[in-house]
Amino acid sequence: MIKVEQLRVRFGDNEVVKGVSIHVPAGGSFGIVGESGSGKSTVLRALSGLNDAWTGNITIDGQSVGPRRNRAFFQKVQMVFQDPYGSLHPRQTIDRILSEPLLVHGIGDIERRIETALAEVALPSAARFRYPHQLSGGQRQRVAIARALIAEPEILLLDEPTSALDVSVQAEILNLLADLRERRQLTYILVSHNLAVVSHLCPTVGVMLGGQMVEVISAEDLRAGKTQHPHTSELRALSVGLEEPA
Amino acid sequence: MSAAFSQAWLLDETPASRSQAAWGRRYRAWLDLRSNPLAMIGLVVVVAFVILSLAAPLLATHDPGVQNLTNRLAKPSVAHWLGTDELGRDIYSRILYGGRVTLGMVIAVVLLVAPLGLAVGCIAGYSGGAVDRILMRVTDVFLAFPRLILALAFVAALKPGVESAVLAIALTAWPPYARLARAETMTVRNSDFIAACRLTGAPAGRIVLRHIAPLCVPSLVVRITLDMSSIIITAASLGFLGMGAQPPSPEWGAMIATAKRFIFEQWWVPTIPGLAIFMASLAFNFLGDGLRDVLDPKQR
Predict the structure, then answer these.
(1) What is the pLDDT of residues B72-117, one digit of tens each?
(2) Domain contains A37
(3) Would A230 be classed as within a structural domain?
(4) pLDDT for A94 beyond 70
(5) Total tally of structural domains belonging to chain B
(6) What is d(CA B217, CA B239) in angstroms, rounded to the nearest whole number?
(7) Interface residue A237 vs chain B (CB under 8 A)
(8) Domain residues for B149?
(9) Shared-domain flag, residues A241 and A128
(10) Residue B193 in contact with residue A87, Cβ under 8 Å?
């Protein structure tokens, strides 16, 4: 479904992503972990078409895509951002935010689709005519997920979807994402610095360090501690140490 | 829908339909505006001025153009409520008719300038690169010209008159709005919510028009209301130089300009149009400030 080969991204003289390759089968779910600055979000932005200064090969659903994407691409691939406070237009109601993708893609039946989308992410219909600043962080992230899903994409790119939320809400959002994937047969790429989050949602995990993917490991191996690369062990030790304070 | 437009229907926390939500928002904005005394004073004065100007033929006691040289520079009296000017014309009637010219000019300038400045600023800010550089250099060129001289040259190239004055002022007044709109656009263009809009596959025009421009409007509204008095003054200066409203057409600025030599002996002659300009400018300012607060839903 998603095939990335030798992806390189540079900002000026600084090469941030140095030849990353990713393969995700249809309905699969791939996690990318790494510390901040490792280039994991940049990979996602290049994939989504937000960053067009990349080289390499990106193939989505058998079709090679260039730096400029067409509307059909955006109907197939959607993204959820890290910060639910910044990813919703501050002057638009939830109704307006959700109807925008439908209007752009010329999808009718807006009224019913918005109702369904809100129900799907477990938001009360009272939220429909509110502004983002009247909702909580978790509710906003649900709106962002609803917006990403409303045009019925096949691929969802998740850029640290839970890291701006507090722990109890994180679990809700993760469960919601897992449910949605099962129900809609979505393909995920999830970026996070949190190993627990990634291994909860993704059977395969790629570890990034300094713009390179140093290891691709299955979630079971990761949990069992069968790591190959020292950086992976380091990240794992850190997350275990955080979860179970001695 | 029998309860349509009742207060309960408008203030419903969980509107049932899109139109109910929209009307509810408008009603709440109106309540907000109403709770702001300064904004209400501004609104009342602006509406009053507009109505007085529109109803000038009904309310005027004299023909604004008829001269009576035996009764020039008369004090306010029963016959001439606000006195007469240096040619014996009734000032009260001239103020009423002058409102049509002056307010008409101000509104026409604003209607021309605001969309132009907004469009140039938003397009430059969102496109970046060469488009931004070209548009901003054009803006700089207009900004660098002395306003009155450019307007003067422009009017001289056309024929003197109110329409040319409006065009000339509009031509010289838009650059600050473009700068302001560009600055506002730059602060949001890289935000996640605009990135999300781009990810819907929306074309750039739609993003600028529907998502960026509305964010620039509140600060533009404030700037415009602050500029209204200076637009009136520029119109007056053009009139004084014979390039704006042509005599005997009454225009507040021109009325001050011609009467300013009487300010010590017959103070009311220049003071009354001055008061009219002052009140109109102040009212626009108050209203603009109130509108800015109402336009920002985060303030609620």
Answers:
(1) 888 888 888 888 888 889 999 999 999 998 899 999 999 999 999 9
(2) no
(3) yes
(4) yes
(5) 1
(6) 31
(7) no
(8) 84-285
(9) no
(10) yes
